[in-house]
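Troubleshooting: if your tokenizer reports a length mismatch, compare against these two reference records.
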Amino acid sequence: MHATTAIVTGKPVKSRPRGGMTKKRPIDWLMLALVVIGALLVIAPFYLVLVNSFKSPVDYATSGPLAFPETLDFGGIIKFWERVNFPEKVWNSIFISGVVALLAVVISMLNAFAIGIGRVRGRSWIVLLFLLANLLPQEALLYPLYYMFKSVGMYDNVWSVIIVFTVIQAAFGTYLLSSVYGTFPKEILEAASLDGASRWQILWRVVFPISRPTLSVLLIFFFIWTWNEFLIPLTFLASNANQTVPVAISVLQGDRLMDVTTTSASALLGIIPTLIFFLIFQRTLTRGITAGAVK
């Protein structure tokens, strides 16, 4: 084929490498090096936490933070587990994050259905309002929310944190889903209406099944974001029994002097639940992202 083309055109044709492989340019090697460096920078903290969690204080003092432990020592993990009652803190974080994720997704879907598909008046201004709500820093909310929950008797109650984070996450979810539902095919909605479906039936039997991958991604993100929140739980959950994992780690480090191995063990135990959650729902997250890219 190449020889025939060369004879007809009179120009030499370069043969392509087999297998579709092309010669790498210097810019490709530079990008690869930058990716490797970035991966090492991300992995380095996890490596330090992992190796130092299983060291004794003497082993850490003699070998330093980078060396592997000579023998596996679970003293730091046991010490932290007993000091903070770790199962209780994990349950508090799971309960708060799970309830917030579910409520925020449901509220976001209902709001976005009314704004994006219901076409309420002032749709653009409402979406802009939700966008501004996402830009508001949490520090600005602490003072009014503190006195509000104090006045209604909900201070030091997990439901106060659940309400705050549900509103915050639902504002972002509404802003995101409104743009998604705004491009929803009208033909499907009109066909459902002609079949006699009510708005409620259109929402749960048409819109919800189609947008389920996007809602699954929001659910996972809302759970992880709420799990990692620190400032608002620290402010509104004063008692030890209501604290979440990030708050328990920080309060213990400030209240009692801990060695490096116990601090590393606390960080490791704080990472493991979210890592397990991510691994369980990794396939759901991948499907949701790829489904949003293909119509």
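Reference record two:
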Amino acid sequence: MISQNPVVEINNVHFSYDGSNVLEDVNLQVPDKDFLSIVGPNGGGKTTLIKLILGLLKPQKGRVRVFGVSPAKARARLGYMPQHASLDPLFPVTAMDVVLMGRLGSGGNRGFYNAADREKTGEALEMVELYEVRNRSFAELSGGQRQRVLIARALVSDPELLILDEPTSNVDAALEVELFELLVRLNEHMTIAVVIHDLGFVSRYVKSVACVNRRVVIHPTSEITGEMINQLYGHDVRMVRHDTFGQANG
């Protein structure tokens, strides 16, 4: 997918760990307001790809640009929800406390929260429809509510690009639908890239799919077939198509 002013532009990127190639000759453009799903087998390079976009890793070869600049310079415009949030659910914090963590380092607060931080936190909780539970203990929330709080933490810095690494892990199918419907609403205001394993929901919500297995190939969702996915994963994977909603393919 080509855009004149892409949010993300990756050119000829190579990355390896200890001499073992993880990504090879990667070229990718993500246009503004895209809703991109990143799929592929375990070890195929999905998390490495998003860490390159976030600037947490640097390529050994090639170039990564986000909003036309290096990922480090664009960091204030990015929101990120990692696959494994480093937050003990038993730690005595409220939902608002967790979301406030996303304001650390923004606005020059130097570790202290001000009225603007708290206002933004309330807005982020409203976006994920959890403002009413803002003062409840994080540990008391349901699994789906916790995921929404962590999404709010990524939203509280007003990102223009939101990146989520497997946000629906450890939630049931009903909550997965709920979370993706939330992401569709957020996509009206920002570009979203999400790593996900369950392809049953991909074509129902996202606009394009990046297939990652050392190399990256991007397709509009409507072009994805069961055969493509079988080749990517090396085995049959359930997938739902727009034109056969509710039916399994592949």
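Descriptive notes for reference record two:
- Residues 237-250 have pLDDT under 50 and may be disordered.
- The CA atoms of residues 166 and 196 lie 5 Å apart.
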